[in-house]
From TrEMBL, chain A:
<dbReference type="InterPro" id="IPR021151">
    <property type="entry name" value="GINS_A"/>
</dbReference>
<comment type="function">
    <text>Required for correct functioning of the GINS complex, a complex that plays an essential role in the initiation of DNA replication, and progression of DNA replication forks. GINS complex seems to bind preferentially to single-stranded DNA.</text>
</comment>
<protein>
    <recommendedName>
        <fullName>DNA replication complex GINS protein PSF1</fullName>
    </recommendedName>
</protein>
<keyword id="KW-0158">Chromosome</keyword>
<comment type="function">
    <text>Required for correct functioning of the GINS complex, a complex that plays an essential role in the initiation of DNA replication, and progression of DNA replication forks. GINS complex is a core component of CDC45-MCM-GINS (CMG) helicase, the molecular machine that unwinds template DNA during replication, and around which the replisome is built.</text>
</comment>
<feature type="domain" description="DNA replication complex GINS protein PSF1 C-terminal">
    <location>
        <begin position="131"/>
        <end position="182"/>
    </location>
</feature>
<comment type="subunit">
    <text>Component of the GINS complex.</text>
</comment>
<dbReference type="Pfam" id="PF24997">
    <property type="entry name" value="PSF1_C"/>
</dbReference>
<dbReference type="Pfam" id="PF05916">
    <property type="entry name" value="Sld5"/>
</dbReference>
Automatic annotation (TrEMBL), chain B:
<dbReference type="GO" id="GO:1902975">
    <property type="term" value="P:mitotic DNA replication initiation"/>
</dbReference>
<dbReference type="GO" id="GO:0000811">
    <property type="term" value="C:GINS complex"/>
</dbReference>
<comment type="function">
    <text>The GINS complex plays an essential role in the initiation of DNA replication.</text>
</comment>
<dbReference type="Pfam" id="PF05916">
    <property type="entry name" value="Sld5"/>
</dbReference>
<comment type="function">
    <text>Required for correct functioning of the GINS complex, a complex that plays an essential role in the initiation of DNA replication, and progression of DNA replication forks. GINS complex is a core component of CDC45-MCM-GINS (CMG) helicase, the molecular machine that unwinds template DNA during replication, and around which the replisome is built.</text>
</comment>
<keyword id="KW-0235">DNA replication</keyword>
<keyword id="KW-0539">Nucleus</keyword>
<comment type="similarity">
    <text>Belongs to the GINS3/PSF3 family.</text>
</comment>
<dbReference type="InterPro" id="IPR038437">
    <property type="entry name" value="GINS_Psf3_sf"/>
</dbReference>
Length: 183, 176
């Protein structure tokens, strides 16, 4: 995955995209008309046709670069934040992007299940090499009850501190619920 | 000469009109010049920006370190490389100057990016073109990551930048 300095996904500039596409439609239509004229003798139009074609390609490059950059950010969100995106971010994404994220998630899950033996391997865990199995965490906001492997539950209240298995906490730390304290 | 041309460009509600006569001079964006350029049929010829011309090339070969490439650029290397697309007879000299400039400046950039306590850093960075700034940042990041590792913080799990940037807003998670 691509690690970018900022994984934020800003609001999709739908209006800007629409205008760019509309511009492309206009350029294309005019070129279609002029190409037939050029074929029937008006070779002086060739420069103009070429010019419009350059503009079309330019718009296409800009649009693709924009959409691709957004996809890379959305993909990075899966790794950095988790498989469930907050509402606020979802509102910034187009329906197609939400769909893409869902399919990427499934694709990744399938792959992770297929490696590392029977249980699969969660590649989104232990991004940084762990030093210990258990870590000290502080709760940054009221979260509620949290179940750990042996069936016991703990209450995550703001400012409470706990000594918990690293693999259970990783996602909550990334989501800003817990803070990893180094001793 | 070429006939009068008028075409739609830019916003749908905004029209730019150009009229071309042979020999007329225009300022156009690089991408347009590249698209119109044709080695076989000479539609356009490109004039070199002054920083790539002989006079400035001499300055660069004397001492490239003193030049403020941000002011001159800020994409001196990238743009200069793109200029080579236009079959200019001076291309070999231009390419050579760009390369030598990079070589002579790189050492100082690399050295100071590895030294967090260098007071001259911001003055140096101000005169770097964008490529050099990216290299400088990469060097700084490497230095910071190493110091983080030395302090034993490399294993610390951190909040995602999403959280850091959105602050303490409460999220309602939605499954998608």
């Amino acid at each position: 995955y691509v690690y970018r300095t900022s994984h934020i996904c800003p609001v999709l500039q739908a209006e800007g995209l629409r205008q760019a596409l509309e511009e492309m439609r206009t350029l294309y239509d005019r070129n279609q008309a002029d190409v037939s004229e050029a074929k029937s003798g008006r070779t002086d139009l060739i420069f103009l046709i070429r010019f419009r074609h350059c503009c079309l390609l330019r718009n296409q490059r800009c649009i693709l670069a924009y959409l691709y950059d957004r996809l890379l950010r959305i993909r990075a969100l899966r790794w950095e934040y988790g498989s469930v995106l907050p509402n606020t971010i979802q509102f910034h994404m187009s329906a197609e992007e939400v769909e893409w994220f869902s399919r990427y998630k499934k694709s990744l899950a399938t792959y992770m299940r297929s490696v590392g033996g029977e249980e699969g391997l969660d590649l989104t865990q232990d991004i940084k090499p762990p030093k210990s199995l258990y870590i000290e965490v502080r709760c940054l906001r009221d979260y509620g009850e949290f179940e750990i492997d042996d069936g016991t539950t703990i209450l995550l209240k703001k400012n409470s501190q706990h000594f918990l298995p690293r693999w259970k906490c990783e996602q909550l730390i990334r989501q800003g619920v817990l803070e990893h304290i180094l001793s | 000469g070429l006939p009068r041309l008028a075409f739609a460009l830019g916003r749908a509600d905004n029209f730019w009109f150009f009229s071309f006569m042979q020999g007329s001079k225009l300022e156009v964006p690089l991408w347009l010049a590249k698209g119109l350029h044709d080695s076989k049929r000479r539609i356009i010829s490109v004039e070199l920006p002054k920083i790539y011309k002989e006079a400035w090339r001499t300055v660069f070969s004397a001492d490239a370190n003193v030049v403020d490439l941000h002011k001159m650029g800020p994409y001196y290397y990238g743009f200069g490389s793109q200029l080579l697309n236009f079959d200019n007879p001076e291309n070999p000299e231009i390419a050579q100057t760009i390369l030598q400039t990079f070589i002579s400046r790189f050492r100082r950039i690399m050295d100071s990016s590895q030294n967090a306590y260098n007071e001259d850093t911001s003055a140096l960075v101000a005169r770097l073109d964008e490529l050099e700034r990216a290299l400088f940042r990469a060097g700084q990041k490497g230095l910071n990551d190493f110091q983080c590792w030395e302090k034993g913080q490399a294993s610390q799990i951190t909040a995602s930048s999403l959280v850091q940037n959105y602050g303490k807003r409460k999220f309602t998670d939605v499954d998608c």
